[in-house]
Amino acid sequence: MEAAALFSFTASEADEISFQKGDIIKVVEMEEDSFWFTAEIEGKRGFIPKNYISLHPHLWFAGAISRLEAEQRLCWQDTGVFLVRESESAPGEFSLSVRSVNAPHL
To answer: What residue stretches are annotated with the SH2 domain (predicted)?
Structure first.
């Protein structure tokens, strides 16, 4: 997921990475109970403070919606439009729904 830096940050530990306000950052790991995310900036990987950035969510990620709702969202879209949602039958997994002429759901 991409994020934009709201503030500049200077790393104080070897496993942290510095960035400037306005930098675009690739967040690669997010821990819910942590104050830090793992990110990549210009090929360097390390920790960044999560309160220094603003996440840019992917528009194709629908979160926890049902299969029926996914079908309803896609039925009027062009062929090939897709969304990813949290799996109803396998917690922690994801489901991919793609608008198709032949099948409304994969």
So the answer is: 60-106
Do residues 79 and 41 share a domain? no
Domain with 88 in it: 61-98
Express each pLDDT in 23-59 by its tens digit: 999 998 887 678 999 999 999 999 999 999 998 877 7
- CB atoms < 10 A from the CB of 102, how many? 5
Rounded to whole angstroms, the Cα distance separating 55 from 19 reads 15
- Which of helix, strand or coil describes residue 38? strand
Determine if the pTM surpasses 0.85.
no
Q: Token pair for residue 49?
A: 């403070």
